[in-house]
């Protein structure tokens, strides 16, 4: 005997529950379709941005939405805003291309690939300094996809890029964990002073102005001449680091030193200046060159390499040091007594 025929009530109940489910599902489907067709353009844009470009929907509706959000980029300066006739006062309205000083067009290059607690300090200092003196600036915030060498090796790519533009005479590589503590100091003065020091016989041959710390080279701050010869030097450095063994690749700093030390040709094109000129370390990181001098007020820039090793008990040692020394930047305390005294 079939159970369904013995009890009509038990037969009816499941059927009515089934149609109730159907109605709920139908309402939901209609609601979802409604949301889809009535979402704001902004919603659609952010939804589509979650998908990689190559896989984005190219339906007519989507294309239309994206087009309406598109910005038109132009280099035509006539339309640029001016701040009450003082466009120069706003650093955001002009491209950071260098204005030549005598025979020097200078670019600043730096890089960071991870979020830190001191991004604004580092970036605002470098962009502000570049703007103040009309230097170009290149700041990379990621390495190319599939880049196998450690991120520090990307600095060679950046220098190569800047050399190839032909837009610069000198490039200042400066690590990200640095504060420019005296923005009055000009790179062209540091370069000129170095090249015209007594020990230099032919200034035009000098391609690298470097500093040591307690190791013979610190590659965190380097002045590099932007000529085709620099590309040859970079190739030699790449060769030094060229290994299939990603784990045991030397870092770019030891390769730069190795290449200079190995070939008299490169050695004659490099010179060392006192660490405090372009690469002062604070007293907290006492790894100094032969002059045994740390950063003091008035120095150009302070650098915190290996802060993690020197300040092991402190949480976020780089951020702590960056914030501490950023207090010395004149725009932080414009009229403070200290700077009025010109100390
Ligand atoms: C900054 O450097 C300039 C040039 O070397 C120097 O004259 C000036 O005194 C320094 N500024 C401070 C506040 O020490």
From TrEMBL:
GO terms for cellular component: Golgi membrane. The chain crosses the membrane at residues 20-37. This is Galactosyl transferase GMA12/MNN10 family-domain-containing protein. GO terms for molecular function: glycosyltransferase activity. It holds the Pfam family Glyco_transf_34. Keywords: Glycosyltransferase, Membrane, Transferase, Transmembrane, Transmembrane helix. It comes from Sphaerosporella brunnea. It comes from the Eukaryota. Belongs to the glycosyltransferase 34 family. One of its GO terms (biological process) is protein N-linked glycosylation.
